[in-house]
Specification:
Elements lengths: L4 E10 L2 E4 L2 E5 L4 E5 L6 H8 L6 E6 L2 E2 L5 H7 E4 L11 H6 L14 H13 L15 H14 L4 E5 L7 H16 L3 E5 L3 H7 L2 E6 L2 E6 L1 H7 L1 H6 L1 E8 L2 E8 L3
Parallel strand pairs: 4-9, 4-10, 7-8, 8-9
Antiparallel strand pairs: 1-2, 1-3, 1-5, 5-6, 10-11, 12-13
Helix pairs in contact: 4-5
């Protein structure tokens, strides 16, 4: 099975300051990877590097193709990127914003096909936005706008979905619903990488943790094994305590004992 991501990154720097150091990352179809780590670890920069939004040195293949040779349209077809705290500045209808996810596949200046419009309808339903589809997005709440931007990313139907803290603006019920949507995307055969700070939520949905600090990947593997090994305690400088309630795995953080 061909990896969706085959990354061998050498360096990302802003001026003379290195942000990411040499690292490798391979992600297969069907994986939901939680990219975790302390603030300033380099998580967002890694996502933006994969998306082609910051210059970097190294090699990246997406489904076996050299990403350095992608046209802008090809990159937009292969990679869907949901940025952190994304904004909507124009009073476009929700349906029109979600439809933007189909533009990489449309002929320039042409209207969306019937199939594309049907696809957008399915995504609106998936994200529980049908009742808001004809409203200007600028009239929505922050959480509703976050769901609209998620829907736009899902509309691309790309083999690789990158999401940077997609649940940070959502209430607990919508956090769970959003993570289930992302897990469903992985279960459908896509590779999904999600930057997260809520490790308890990540534990419930992610098949794999990739933990970063100081621009390096420090640990990579199944969540259970990384928690059991104490690797995450060391990376975050705290103790993680686990419990179960009604069959649901719970995770709490506590100060490390000196």
């Amino acid at each position: 099975m061909t990896d969706v991501i085959d990354l061998d990154l050498k360096r990302v720097a802003f001026g003379n300051r290195a942000i990411l150091h040499p690292l490798s990352l391979h992600v297969r179809p069907g994986e939901l990877v939680a990219l975790i780590g302390p603030n300033g670890a380099g998580k967002t920069t890694l996502l933006r590097s994969i998306a082609g939004l910051v210059p970097w040195q190294g090699r990246l293949r997406i489904q076996g193709e050299d990403a350095a040779k992608f046209s802008a349209a090809r990159r937009a077809q292969c990679i869907a990127y949901l940025e952190q705290n994304g904004s909507i500045h124009w009073p476009l209808l929700v349906r029109d914003i979600v439809s933007l996810g189909r533009l990489p596949f449309a002929n320039r200046g042409a209207a969306l096909s019937v199939q594309d419009r049907e696809h957008v309808d399915r995504i609106l339903e998936t994200c529980c936005l049908e009742h808001l589809s004809e409203r200007p997005a600028t009239e929505l709440s922050g959480g509703e706008r976050a769901r609209v931007l998620l829907a736009r990313a899902l509309a691309v139907d790309a083999p690789l979905l990158l999401a940077d803290e997609p649940v940070s603006a959502l209430d607990p019920a919508l956090q769970i619903a959003t993570m289930q949507i992302l897990k469903d995307q992985a279960d459908a055969g896509r590779a999904v990488i999600v930057v997260m700070h809520d490790l308890g939520l990540a534990l419930r949905f992610a098949s794999r943790f990739v933990a970063m600090s100081q621009g390096h990947i420090r640990a990579d593997g199944p969540p259970d094994s990384l928690l059991a090994s104490g690797a995450l305690d060391h990376i975050f400088g705290i103790r993680f305590l686990r419990a179960q309630s009604d069959g649901i795995e719970l995770l709490a953080a506590a100060r490390r004992q000196s």
